[in-house]
Design a protein that fits this description.
Lipolytic acyl hydrolase (LAH). Possesses non-specific lipolytic acyl hydrolase (LAH) activity. Hydrolyzes phospholipids as well as galactolipids. May play a role in disease resistance. The chain is an alpha/beta fold. The chain contains 13 helices and ten strands.
């Protein structure tokens, strides 16, 4: 592993730096805008060659966040990150219409056709996404990432999460899969894309088979998962996780506005299987899995923050006012893509917020600045930590 941040979590570094990116389909444009801003701030401090992967011990991502993770951490032919963060949003704008072809989305005939298709197979065949990832990522495997990577998927053969973590490769060589296969697996959202099958060398002369669907089934917000991987790695290395300081940045893909209840028990009591799978352009069962998974992360992190105290710096950036097509994971119309770009830009100017664990709503942090201002402060800390490691 090239180790872009120079210090793998669990070595002599006193500070552990973690970046986490949620799942959300085409809404990946939102964290892409935020990441571009963060990288620009790092470049102001350390020059135009600075890249996200140079500063984080761990980059974790689920589904579309997994795609962003490999784009940030995979090496190009010169051993530098494959994508500059400033190019990520444009990548989504250019490629989303081919990944999620609309086919006259708004017509009644299209809606009938989509409903019929859902009864016999996924909404999209995934072929363009697969070819796109194979083309960009080539033969690069997990151990070729420029920093530690943690990406969850869900194996339907075993009905359990599968975590592709570069921390685990020494003891689980079968996890050393192609980054393209990992990215395809973590983004294989049920009803949208087909489940993904591939095999790897198990390190014992045999093969290991994977039967994967969307990592959001396991952890749509992979922040806690990343921290668990770091802690496990430290324990195995004979270190105490509580003896470290943590800088954690977690970026969401947006959630729907909460003042209006999205679903009600009275309505859901009448739903059949099709209504649970598709309702008003959304997939209720996935919405609930994703929201529940994300909320549990908030609950656990609130406890973890109390345990770690001031040594734990955690910045969560999430937009919670999505409405209409902006809440879709596959609306790749130009109007919606442009809207998502504006949402990402608007998010930077919003005040730093945290989750009220009783209501699930974001509330402003007292005395906090904007997300952009806070990211600039974090960029300075990340830059200082990288410089300290280089000097040592």
């Amino acid at each position: 592993m090239a180790g872009g941040s120079s210090a793998a979590a669990g070595d002599e570094a006193k500070v552990v730096t973690i970046l986490s990116i949620d799942g959300g389909g085409v809404r990946g444009i939102i964290p892409a805008i935020v990441l571009a801003f963060l990288e620009k701030e790092l470049q102001k401090l350390d020059g135009p060659d600075a890249r996200i992967a140079d500063y984080f011990d761990v980059v974790a991502g689920t589904s579309t966040g997994g795609l962003l993770t490999v784009m940030l951490a995979a090496p190009d032919k010169d051993g530098r990150p494959l994508f500059d963060a400033k190019d990520l949003a444009q990548f989504y704008i250019d490629e989303s219409p081919k990944i999620f072809p609309q086919n006259c989305r708004g017509s009644i005939f299209s809606k009938i056709g989509s409903a019929l298709a859902l009864a016999t197979g996924p909404k999209y065949d995934g072929k363009y996404l697969h070819s796109l990832l194979h083309r960009h990522l080539g033969d690069t495997k997990l151990d070729g990432a420029l920093t530690h990577v943690v990406i969850p998927a869900f194996d339907i053969a075993y009905l359990q999460p599968t975590i592709f973590s570069s921390f685990q490769l020494e003891n689980q060589p079968a996890k050393n899969a192609l980054l393209s296969d990992i990215a395809i697996g973590t983004s294989a959202a049920p009803t949208f894309f087909p489940a993904h099958y591939f095999e790897t060398n198990d390190g014992k002369g045999g093969t290991r088979a994977f039967n994967l669907i969307d990592g959001a089934v396991a952890a749509n917000n992979p922040t806690l998962l990343a921290m668990n991987q770091v802690a496990e790695h430290m324990v195995l290395a004979g270190q105490q996780p509580a003896g470290k300081s943590y800088i954690v940045i977690s970026i969401g893909c947006g959630t729907s506005s909460l003042p209006k209840l999205k679903y009600s028990a009275k309505d859901a009591a009448k739903w059949g299987i099709l209504s649970w799978l598709i309702k008003d352009g959304s997939v209720p069962i996935l919405d609930m899995f994703n929201a529940g998974s994300a909320d549990m992360v908030d609950f656990h992190l609130s406890v973890l923050s109390a345990v770690l105290g001031t040594s734990h710096q955690y910045l969560r950036i999430q937009y919670d006012k999505l409405s209409g097509s902006a809440g879709s994971i596959d609306d790749s119309s130009k109007a919606n893509l442009d809207r998502l770009v504006k949402i990402g830009e608007e998010l930077l100017s919003e005040k730093v917020s945290g989750v009220d664990l009783e209501t699930g709503r974001n509330v402003e942090v007292p005395g906090g600045g904007t997300n952009a201002e806070e990211l600039a402060k974090y960029a300075k800390q990340l830059s200082d930590e990288r410089r300290r490691r280089r000097n040592n």
